[in-house]
């Protein structure tokens, strides 16, 4: 997480270095008024793009909610569009380029997938204790002496959990299971 914050803080630094290099003619000479006009023009075009994509994303969220589905991808897209708008509002060419990557749909897709994998899923798993992704302990508490010590139906040794009778260390045997017919049990 700190690396991501450090990267976000380095982007404006790269922006300043690029603007100074272009204004002084180190890379190639650009008149200062042209450079300022380019920065303002890219910000305006980017904000119009974010506005249009935001409306399309809001429409998709409403459509998904109308049919009873969760709009997970659309919500991540909305967050990325907010970040793109912030990048476009920051003056500079590098921040405008990063904002453009987040605003255009076909470049936003890999960023959305990476965000879901490395940001959203670990956060949700930490908050739900693994229930959201299915990484939960079954057969007792994780540190219980009588139950398995790891996730899933395995015991402390890595094999199937052993035990007899009932309790946290038992396993289900479908051959020994019986059906209960509640209609026949009403007879006295």
UniProtKB/TrEMBL annotation:
Residues 155-168 have a biased composition (Gly residues). GO terms for cellular component: membrane. InterPro entries: FxsA. Keywords: Membrane, Transmembrane, Transmembrane helix. The chain crosses the membrane at residues 7-27, 33-50. It comes from the Archaea. Pfam families: FxsA. It comes from Haloarcula argentinensis. The keyword Disulfide bond does not apply. Residues 140-188 are annotated as: Disordered. NCBIfam families: PRK11463.1-2. Residues 173-188 have a biased composition (Acidic residues). This is Membrane protein FxsA. The keyword Transmembrane applies.
């Amino acid at each position: 997480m700190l690396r991501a914050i450090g990267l976000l803080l380095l982007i404006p630094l790269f922006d300043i270095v690029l603007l100074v290099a272009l204004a002084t003619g180190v890379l190639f000479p650009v008149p200062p008024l042209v450079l300022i006009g380019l920065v303002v023009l890219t910000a305006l075009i980017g904000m119009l793009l974010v506005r249009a994509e935001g409306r399309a994303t809001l429409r998709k969220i409403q459509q998904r909610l109308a049919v009873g589905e969760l709009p997970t991808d659309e919500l991540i897209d909305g967050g990325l569009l907010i970040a793109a708008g912030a990048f476009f509002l920051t003056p500079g060419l590098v921040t405008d380029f990063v904002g453009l990557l987040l605003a255009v749909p076909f470049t936003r897709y890999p960023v959305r997938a990476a965000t879901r994998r490395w940001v959203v899923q670990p956060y949700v798993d930490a908050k739900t204790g693994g229930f959201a992704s299915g990484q939960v302990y079954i057969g007792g508490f994780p540190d219980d002496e009588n139950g398995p010590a790891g996730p899933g139906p395995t015991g402390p040794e890595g094999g199937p959990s052993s035990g007899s009778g009932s309790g946290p260390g038992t396993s289900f045997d479908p051959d020994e299971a019986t059906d209960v017919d509640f209609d026949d049990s009403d007879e006295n």
